[in-house]
């Protein structure tokens, strides 16, 4: 645990200048009309210039774009940690473990599908707590059991060991992926309590929202899948929207599940448009993107209300994630020949 005073005013001033340099929705619409080489040239005229130039001798096309995006993301979040002190540093370290979760899910999926290690590396974002040596060893192992063994001593090991039994029975990755999410959120909420006011209360409120949206996503996926999986096994504690009995009751009734989200006072108005679209949707992708956009709006709101809290940092992290995911989706979509409308459906646009 880091000691000493926090320095949110300094960090948030730096974050605001970085946020101002991020791409706009109009930029995404320009990129949709470009091929991968044009996208790379566009990025060279933005704050991705250094990464594109440094990596351009080794990679090209979508690989160049993806490596540049991931390196840039890691650079920004390394900077966050370098600027931060005290409790703020500890909060940011904990939150950035979400990229450990991303990397571990990517590695486990890669092993499951027998993907070449180099392809797995393309998707890794080295911005979490696991060091490069550990990540490189994880990419090279042959089995999911080996992954769990290498993670001994981390916050993920115990959850993965329990989930591994269910994975062996079902052959599905969902128990392992959900175990990673649970470990992450339990660690985030540890020792926070439930403050009723002030910046710390808004931080907890944001984490509750992120957990609620994760549970909503999991519940809606289960409802749409029609599977007989136990909903309680995919429940993450810490939110305010569901308890386990809610999930068990609602997961078999898709319309009732959507109504439950809509009736919640905290989120109903904010998600009303997304919920309307969900009722008519053929897939969950648009609603999942709407959840992502709503969470980003929520963080933006909190950062304006509490500018000297961690909220502006969380808003920046989510915004930067959104930028990277949008550019990646555009580049991959263009590579496989999707039309502009199909690509735009893959984007989170506010």
From TrEMBL:
Keyword RNA-binding part of the UniProt annotation: no
Signal in keyword set: no
Domain of life: Archaea
Subcellular localization(s) per the UniProt record: Cell membrane
GO molecular function, one term: ATP binding
UniProt topology in membrane: Peripheral membrane protein
One Pfam entry name: vATP-synt_AC39
GO CC term (a single one): plasma membrane
Membrane-spanning residues: none
Gene Ontology BP terms: proton motive force-driven plasma membrane ATP synthesis
InterPro entries: ATPase_csu/dsu_sf (IPR036079), ATPase_V0-cplx_csu (IPR014272), ATPase_V0-cplx_csu/dsu (IPR002843), V-ATPase_V0D/AC39_subunit (IPR050873), V-type_ATPase_csu/dsu (IPR035067), V-type_ATPase_csu/dsu_dom_3 (IPR044911)
Primary localisation category: membrane
This protein's UniProt keywords: ATP synthesis, Cell membrane, Hydrogen ion transport, Ion transport, Membrane, Transport
NCBIfam families: AhaC, PRK01198.1-1
Quaternary structure note: Has multiple subunits with at least A(3), B(3), C, D, E, F, H, I and proteolipid K(x).
Job description of the protein: Component of the A-type ATP synthase that produces ATP from ADP in the presence of a proton gradient across the membrane.
Family, per entry: Belongs to the V-ATPase V0D/AC39 subunit family.
Protein name stated in the entry: A-type ATP synthase subunit C
């Amino acid at each position: 645990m880091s000691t000493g005073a926090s320095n949110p005013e300094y960090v948030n001033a730096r974050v605001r200048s970085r946020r101002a340099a991020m791409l706009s929705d109009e930029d995404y619409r320009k990129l949709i009309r470009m091929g991968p080489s044009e996208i790379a040239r566009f990025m060279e005229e933005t704050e991705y210039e250094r990464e594109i130039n440094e990596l351009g001798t080794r990679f090209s096309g979508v690989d160049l774009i993806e490596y540049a995006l991931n390196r840039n993301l890691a650079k920004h979040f390394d900077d966050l940690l370098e600027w931060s002190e005290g409790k703020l540093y500890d909060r940011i370290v904990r939150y950035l473990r979400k990229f450990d979760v991303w990397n571990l899910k990517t590695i486990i999926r890669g092993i499951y599908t027998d993907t070449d290690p180099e392809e797995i590396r393309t998707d890794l974002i080295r911005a979490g707590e696991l060091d490069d040596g550990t990540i490189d060893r994880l990419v090279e192992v042959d089995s999911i059991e080996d992954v769990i063994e290498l993670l001994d001593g981390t916050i993920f090991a115990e959850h993965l060991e329990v989930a591994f039994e269910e994975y062996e029975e079902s052959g599905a990755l969902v128990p392992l992926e959900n175990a990673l999410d649970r470990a992450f959120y339990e660690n985030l909420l540890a020792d926070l309590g439930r403050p009723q006011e002030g910046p710390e209360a808004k931080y907890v409120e944001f984490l509750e929202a992120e957990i609620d949206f994760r549970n909503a996503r999991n519940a809606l996926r289960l409802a749409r899948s029609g599977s007989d999986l136990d909903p309680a096994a995919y429940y993450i504690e810490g939110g305010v929207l569901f308890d386990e009995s809610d999930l068990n009751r609602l997961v078999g009734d898709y319309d009732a599940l959507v109504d439950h989200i809509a009736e919640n006072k905290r989120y109903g108005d904010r998600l009303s448009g997304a919920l309307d679209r969900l009722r008519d949707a053929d897939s969950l992708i648009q609603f999942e993107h709407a959840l992502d956009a709503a969470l980003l709006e929520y963080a933006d709101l909190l950062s304006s209300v509490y500018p000297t809290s961690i909220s502006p940092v969380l808003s920046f992290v989510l915004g930067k994630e959104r930028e990277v995911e949008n550019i990646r989706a555009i580049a991959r979509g263009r590579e496989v020949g999707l039309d502009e409308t199909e690509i735009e459906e893959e984007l989170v646009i506010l």
